[in-house]
Amino acid sequence: MAALTLALSKGRILEESLPLLARIGLDPAGDIDRLLRVPSRNRDVSLLIVRPADVPTYVEYGAADLGIVGKDVLMEHGGAALYEPLDLGIARCRLSVAAKKDGPRPDGVRRLRVATKYPEITRRHFAQKGEQVELIKLYGSMELAPLVGLADLIVDLVATGGTLKANGLVEIETICQVTSRLVVNKAAMKTKHAAIQTLLAQFAGAVRA
Ligand code: PRT
Ligand code: MG
């Protein structure tokens, strides 16, 4: 059995992880579109292909020793149970508040409704500003919510801004910058210290390259 297991976020983060993995000999040796567990070219490291939001859970419980996951997902999950030693600088975007071009019109009576996939981050953000908002949890296509009157504001990821623009929305506030991070299980960091340090150094080198 491989010495280390690395959980990868399926989708765009996986796409952007592949060049980094290739640089350090961890390219998947199998069909990543169909397999959920794939060996890598390095026999000591096996790969798990999981949904982005599940990566922190796999790593926290030690089903994977390491993971690659977006800072957005980590912040929403609550990262305290994991080490986050390296910013991989990939899948770069920002988490922002957006509204219709003509803006939300607070009437002073009703609380603003905010639709998002990130209720925890959103709750913290507005609480810090001392604003009471009503959260509406969505699983995707947040941009639709203001257009159909489901919400006044959205909190969503923005990269080029093209999606907001296409839907007549404008960014009104940036909450934070987002990149993908390498995360490590806390127990594994002790019990597999040497192997993990070697891998961390390789990743750090690949990021700088
Ligand atoms: O499929 P599942 O629901 O499990 O996962 P997912 O849809 O979250 O996966 P995927 O492949 O979309 O990857 C999401 C992760 O990629 C996020 O957690 C981020 O860390 C990272 N990432 C980087 C992005 C973007 N950039 C991004 N632009 N995730 C989503 N977007 C979307 C955004 O939500 C919006 O709809 O792209 C649109 C905005 O892009 P622009 O360029 O039009 O501004
Ligand atoms: Mg998706």
TrEMBL record:
Enzyme nomenclature, EC number: 2.4.2.17
Annotated family: Belongs to the ATP phosphoribosyltransferase family. Short subfamily.
Cellular component, GO, one term: cytoplasm
Keyword tags: Amino-acid biosynthesis, ATP-binding, Cytoplasm, Glycosyltransferase, Histidine biosynthesis, Nucleotide-binding, Transferase
Cross-referenced PROSITE patterns: ATP_P_PHORIBOSYLTR
Residue ranges of every copy of the ATP phosphoribosyltransferase catalytic domain listed in the record: 51-203
Primary location: cytoplasm
One GO MF term attached to the UniProt entry: ATP binding
One Pfam family matching this protein: HisG
Name this protein carries in UniProt: ATP phosphoribosyltransferase
Catalytic activity: 1-(5-phospho-beta-D-ribosyl)-ATP + diphosphate = 5-phospho-alpha-D-ribose 1-diphosphate + ATP
Biological function: Catalyzes the condensation of ATP and 5-phosphoribose 1-diphosphate to form N'-(5'-phosphoribosyl)-ATP (PR-ATP). Has a crucial role in the pathway because the rate of histidine biosynthesis seems to be controlled primarily by regulation of HisG enzymatic activity.
UniProt subunit comment: Heteromultimer composed of HisG and HisZ subunits.
Gene that encodes the chain: hisG
